[in-house]
């Protein structure tokens, strides 16, 4: 009889937890929900073909390159406009850490020193530098924004980039 009571209580607790409506993965800061149909704030650090800042941008940041094109496609998928912010990796990683950006690009690889400040996508492509060293490229997102990170990783995978 006692065993039945314990089993009943465990089952009741499990059902109560299942009904809480919590979904995983979650974004504690709501990044994916805020960006979808809104604005994706992207930090872009110039790095050869990955991220280029053409001259004559005329005040508004224009960003081009392989990663910029991917971000534009991702934003379209989310129905979001892009607000570009340009700067050095250090400045952009700090801005990401403090909530001012949703994503940082710049030809970064999985050995980036900013991994303590940010979440990293799965490596989505590889390249070799002039010395023959292999680089596995990633993008940076805010730490803990796992639903946003998962959506970006899915996009990169579905677009043939991961």
TrEMBL record:
Keywords, sorted A to Z: Lipoprotein, Signal
Signal peptide start and end residues: 1-18
Top-level taxonomic group: Bacteria
Pfam family, one: SBP_bac_3
Every Solute-binding protein family 3/N-terminal domain range: 62-127
Name of the featured protein: Lipoprotein
Protein species of origin: Arthrobacter nitrophenolicus
């Amino acid at each position: 009889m006692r065993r039945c009571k314990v089993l009943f209580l465990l089952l009741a607790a499990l059902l109560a937890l299942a009904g809480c409506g919590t979904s995983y993965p979650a974004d504690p800061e709501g990044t994916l929900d805020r960006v979808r149909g809104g604005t994706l704030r992207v930090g872009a650090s110039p790095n050869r073909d990955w991220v280029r800042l053409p001259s004559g941008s005329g005040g508004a940041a224009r960003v081009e390159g392989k990663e910029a094109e991917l971000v534009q496609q991702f934003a379209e998928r989310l129905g979001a406009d892009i607000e570009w912010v340009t700067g050095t990796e250090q400045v952009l990683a700090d801005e990401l850490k403090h909530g001012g950006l949703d994503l940082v690009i710049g030809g970064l690889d999985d050995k980036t020193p900013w991994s303590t400040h940010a979440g990293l996508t799965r490596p989505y492509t590889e390249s070799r530098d002039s010395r023959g060293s292999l680089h596995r490229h990633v993008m940076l997102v805010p730490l803990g924004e796992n639903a946003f990170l998962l959506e970006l990783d899915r996009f990169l995978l579905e677009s043939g980039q991961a």
